[in-house]
Specification:
It contains twelve helices and 14 strands. With 384 residues, the chain is an alpha/beta fold. A hairpin with a 2-residue loop joins strand 6 and strand 7. Helix 8 runs parallel beside helix 10 and helix 10 crosses helix 12. The chain is globular and about 55 Å long. The N and C termini lie far apart (51 Å). The structure holds sulfoquinovose-uridine-C1,5'-diphosphate. Sulfoquinovose-uridine-C1,5'-diphosphate (USQ) binds next to helix 8 and strand 10. It comes from Pararhizobium mangrovi. This is NAD-dependent epimerase/dehydratase family protein. InterPro entries: Epimerase_deHydtase, NAD(P)-bd_dom_sf. It holds the Pfam family Epimerase.
Length: 384
């Protein structure tokens, strides 16, 4: 298939591009380097230097013999995006092209405004470009489990059947985001659902939990093909952060009571899920929603895993309970269903002791590159 990977420079975008290319798809990556420049502006760059997309595509070609084409530009610019869709005429579009950080979206009005404008304009333009140039294409959009929040009932896979005053109907599962970033994902879903209803587009919306990991089949052993591995408070997800903290001797930064529970998955499983969704597309006029995670853990359970791994590797890992800078439930019910991707054939990589230890050992090689003052700066959801 001809596939556009929008946000192809990101933590998930670049590994996805290589994974789909390795599977024989014809991949074009599009990015405007927004995440790179925001990380640079905030002095929170990743653990490894990541070559630009053109260089990465060259290195990938040397390794695999396969080409990935690169287009640099801003999807919020209609002339640019319509040119991309018009020339490439994709059969599938994987859309990751958003400001991905919850803490970033809570810094101040400017950061919040950038998140809102960028994320919604990009999604809006993608919908219009699809409809103008490739109305039968399949859009795979990255949403987030955070759209649902932490309700006191079981979380269904996207939809909820409601019986009210003796009548029944099906609605999007109620959503209650915990940050402005997560709210933009809810608004994206609403935009998609509207245009699916009126224009009959095919869309898969992936409600993904926090991702961890670095190595994939495509980058193993080639540092220049690694993704961004962020461990700072803005762009690092919690398990990646805890691994770096353990290696550098920084106490693990548990926010509040640490009972916050989320659905986690290995980067390798993100790639599998996106490929499975791509190769079994949604029907015309369908908004298909999958809950994309493998296992649920509380923050305390993750910290126990990192400490146990530290013990096995002879590291002395300590923990620090910090006042929670976020506004979120610290003890709550959490039971999301996630059968759709398993039914499509997902073979999960659970967070075993071996997986934990191998991630820790990989990062141990790069210990000298850790900049410890990036680890915690205390971005508060509600300024004092
Ligand atoms: N947390 C800590 N200590 C830390 C960092 C985080 O206790 O040092 C806690 C947070 O308070 C939260 C949980 O760990 O309760 C997860 O935090 P996170 O930073 O790993 O994840 P989050 O901010 O929710 O965002 C990440 C990705 C985002 C994606 C989301 C999926 O950055 O792009 O959408 O995970 S989900 O969490 O399911 O909404």
């Amino acid at each position: 298939m001809r596939v556009l990977v929008l946000g192809g420079d990101g933590y998930l975008g670049w590994p996805t591009a290589m994974h789909l290319s390795a599977a024989g798809h014809d991949v074009v990556v599009v990015d405007n380097y927004l995440r790179r420049s925001l990380a640079q502006e905030r002095d929170c760059e990743a653990l490894f230097e990541v070559p630009n997309l053109v260089r990465r595509a060259q290195i990938w070609k040397e390794r695999s013999g396969r080409s990935i084409n690169v287009r640099i530009g801003d999807l919020c610019n209609w002339d640019f995006i319509s040119d991309v869709f018009n020339t490439i005429r994709p059969e599938a579009i994987v859309h990751y092209a958003e400001q991905p950080s919850a803490p970033y979206s809570m810094i101040d009005r400017g950061a919040a405004g950038l998140t809102l404008t960028n994320n919604l304009s990009a999604t809006f333009n993608v919908i219009h470009a699809m409809n103008n140039f490739t109305p039968k294409a399949h859009l795979i959009k990255l949403g987030t489990m955070g759209e649902y929040g932490t309700p006191n009932i079981d979380i269904e896979e996207g939809w909820l059947d409601v019986e009210h005053n003796g009548r029944k109907d099906r609605f999007l599962f109620p959503r209650a985001a915990g940050s402005l970033y997560h709210t933009t994902k809810i608004l994206d879903t609403d935009l998609l659902w509207f245009y699916v209803r009126v224009w009959g587009l095919r869309v898969t919306d992936l409600m993904q939990g926090p991702v961890y990991g670095l190595e994939t089949d495509e980058n193993e052993g080639t540092e220049a093909l690694y993704s961004f591995f962020n461990y700072d408070e803005i762009f690092g997800t919690v398990l990646n952060r805890f691994i770096v903290q353990a290696i550098s001797g920084h106490p693990l930064t548990i926010y509040g009571k640490g009972g916050q529970t989320r659905g986690y998955l290995n980067l390798k499983d993100t790639l599998q899920c996106v490929k499975l969704a791509l190769e079994a597309p949604a029907r015309e006029g369908e908004l298909r929603i999958f809950n994309q995670f493998v296992e649920t853990f509380s923050v305390n359970e993750l910290s126990d895993k990192v400490r146990a791994s530290g013990d096995r590797l002879g590291l002395n890992v300590s923990v620090e309970t910090l006042p929670n800078p976020r506004q979120e439930a610290e003890e709550h019910y959490y039971k999301p269903s996630h059968t759709g991707l398993l039914d499509l054939g997902l073979k999960p990589h659970p967070l075993t002791d071996d997986v934990m230890d191998s991630m820790m050992m990989l990062i141990l090689h790069y210990k000298s590159r850790i900049v410890s003052d990036r680890i915690y700066r205390g971005i508060k959801w509600k300024p004092a």
